[in-house]
Automatic annotation (TrEMBL), chain A:
It is found in: Membrane. It catalyses: ATP + protein L-histidine = ADP + protein N-phospho-L-histidine. It comes from Paractinoplanes aksuensis. Residues 57-109 form the HAMP domain. It comes from the Bacteria. SUPFAM superfamilies: ATPase domain of HSP90 chaperone/DNA topoisomerase II/histidine kinase. This is histidine kinase. Its EC number is 2.7.13.3. Its main location: membrane. Keywords: ATP-binding, Kinase, Membrane, Nucleotide-binding, Phosphoprotein, Transferase, Transmembrane, Transmembrane helix, Two-component regulatory system. The chain crosses the membrane at residues 40-60.
TrEMBL record, chain B:
The lineage of its organism: Bacteria, Bacillati, Actinomycetota, Actinomycetes, Micromonosporales. This is Response regulator transcription factor. It comes from Paractinoplanes aksuensis. Residues 145-210 form the HTH luxR-type domain. Residues 3-119 form the Response regulatory domain. The modification 4-aspartylphosphate is found at residue 54.
Length: 312, 214
């Protein structure tokens, strides 16, 4: 039965009962209503309204559930769906809503995927050009400077040595930029080496990064390795910047189903109810790309743990 | 005379390196290759004493070429000259048989010294790798794992800790109120004591410590 006819029939039923009561009950209403009569009629009307409200509430409750889901849905945590209960049009509405969610989630994942892979490709290209063009030319300049300095008179040589140092600094700077853009070690030596290097980069006087990368991991596709690397990088960045942690454990292990699991856990302050920032949302988007499950939790005693499970 | 084979895909860099090496009285560049496989062909035709290889090269990378070269020419010494400042590349280079690792940004300063070290069969340690090795050593000492058991003085221990925390030689000198030269001497003593001045021993240690796969 359509929503229109349900509401119509509910109202019709209530009004019919009221009319029947008026017709067949042994009562009369005086031309000028007496107090008792007025009270009875008002009470009758109130009962009618309450009955109407209850019936409507029951009839429309699936819509209220739907509204709640609609206002709280988060496309970065896919999989929330309503059971298509209720009758006729309402069940249809819920089914249509679920189908729309499916479509939105797919579209969101694929457009985020396109954006992320375009970004990664661009970073890769820039890093490579920095390395291969500017880096090599500066290297040649550095070597030439050394030769020229050797053959120059003393006062000029001192100045040339300074030029050599500034050339060296800019070469170091270019290398740092290129590495931040795209870690060459990941492409050349694979994930285990890249994570080892990452742990080393984040280790400072105040923060110890302990890494445990199991050696018998399954061979992973390039895009999965990149997601694991970026999630580890982001988690370590958060731990180093916000958590005031002293220790971070970085563990990459195999799961029972043949997939892998990355866990980054620190002993810092924890999330303390802070809303998810762009960093964590970025991790969720990357996790969606490879169908992985990301969870970010704070322990009771503080500390934050980021877990990424990649199915086989 | 040490005969050197040079492999880098950038002609400008090759030219610069050649001019630097040729200006040394005991070094001589006998061949230039633009990629790994060309380097293999040149080494087969006229075996050099030392090969200086870039990592990122088309067709065959320097690491692949190093693996092949150390297999086919066991006596050949290999140096890696690269843009990559990552200790994982150093350990990988060590694994495939290289004796040293020189950053291009320090080539003007370190290359000649590294060539001589390689010919003495001493590893030429890249600074990032040294820090990683020392960090690993301290971690293993803390957890009681087996480590080369040689007496390290208190001062050396202090230096060791600061190196592991990522301080530069200059920082350490300022922190401990000693000269840069003294810090360098301590560092070099420590490395010798930990057995990291010997290429084979260093490779074995890096494998035991899980820094590289065997």
């Amino acid at each position: 039965m359509s929503l229109f006819w349900r509401i119509f029939s509910l109202n019709a039923a209530v009004l019919t009962v009221a009319a029947l009561v008026l017709l067949f009950a042994p009562v009369t209403v005086s031309a000028t209503a007496r107090l008792a009569e007025a009270l009875i009629i008002l009470a009758g009307t109130a009962v009618t309204l309450v009955a109407n409200a209850v019936m409507l509430r029951v009839g429309l409750s699936p819509l209220a559930r739907l509204t709640r889901v609609m206002t709280t849905i988060d496309l970065l945590r896919p999989g929330t769906r309503l059971v298509a209960r209720g009758q006729g049009e309402i069940a249809q509405l819920i089914t249509a809503f679920n189908a729309m969610l499916d479509r939105l989630e797919t579209e969101r994942a694929s457009s985020a995927g396109r954006a992320l892979s375009a970004q990664e490709a661009e970073r890769h290209r820039i890093a490579q050009e920095l390395h291969d063009e500017i880096g090599q030319t500066l290297t040649a300049v550095l070597l030439d400077l050394k030769r020229v300095a050797k053959a120059s008179p003393d006062p000029v040589r001192d100045q040339l040595l300074q030029v050599q140092e500034s050339t060296r600094n800019s070469l170091d700077e270019i290398r740092r930029i290129a590495r931040r853009l795209r870690p060459g070690v990941l492409d050349e030596l694979g994930l285990a080496s890249a994570l080892r290097a990452l742990a080393g980069e984040f280790t400072t006087a105040g923060l110890a990064v302990r890494r445990q990368v199991h050696s018998d991991l399954p061979v992973l596709p390039k895009e999965v390795e990149l997601v694991l690397y970026r999630v580890a990088q982001e988690s370590l960045t958060n731990a180093a910047r916000h958590s005031a942690a002293q220790h971070v454990d970085l563990v990459l292990s195999e799961q029972n189903d043949g997939g892998v699991r990355l866990c980054v856990r620190d002993d810092g302050r924890g999330l303390r109810g802070a809303p998810e920032g762009a960093g964590i949302r970025g991790m969720r988007e990357r996790a969606l790309l490879i169908g992985a499950d990301l969870s970010v939790e704070s322990g009771v005693t503080g500390g934050t743990s980021v877990q990424l499970s990649v199915p086989a | 005379m040490i005969r050197i084979l040079l492999a880098d895909d950038h002609a400008l860099v090759r030219r610069g390196v050649r001019l630097i090496l040729d200006s040394e009285p005991d070094l001589e560049v006998i061949g230039e290759a633009a990629d790994g496989s060309e380097a293999l062909a040149l080494a087969a035709a006229d075996p050099p004493d030392l090969a200086v290889l870039d990592i990122a090269m088309p067709r065959m990378t320097g690491l692949q070429a190093a693996r092949e070269l150390s297999r086919s020419h066991p006596d050949l010494r290999i140096l890696i000259l690269t843009m990559y400042d990552n200790e994982q590349f150093f350990f990988e280079a060590l694994r495939v048989g290289a004796a040293g690792y020189v950053l291009k940004s320090a080539a003007d300063r370190d290359l000649v010294e590294a060539c001589h070290a390689a010919m003495r069969d001493e590893p030429f340690l890249y600074p990032g790798a040294e820090t990683a090795l020392i960090r690993e050593y301290l971690e293993r000492a803390r957890t009681g794992a087996d480590i080369p058991d040689r007496a390290v003085t208190e001062r050396e221990e202090e230096v060791l800790k600061l190196v592991a925390e990522g301080h530069s030689t200059k920082d350490i000198a300022e922190l401990l109120y000693i000269s840069v030269k003294t810090v360098e001497r301590h560092r070099s003593n420590i490395l010798a004591k930990l057995g990291l001045k010997d290429r084979q021993e260093l490779t074995r240690y890096a494998i035991r410590a899980g820094l590289i796969e065997p």
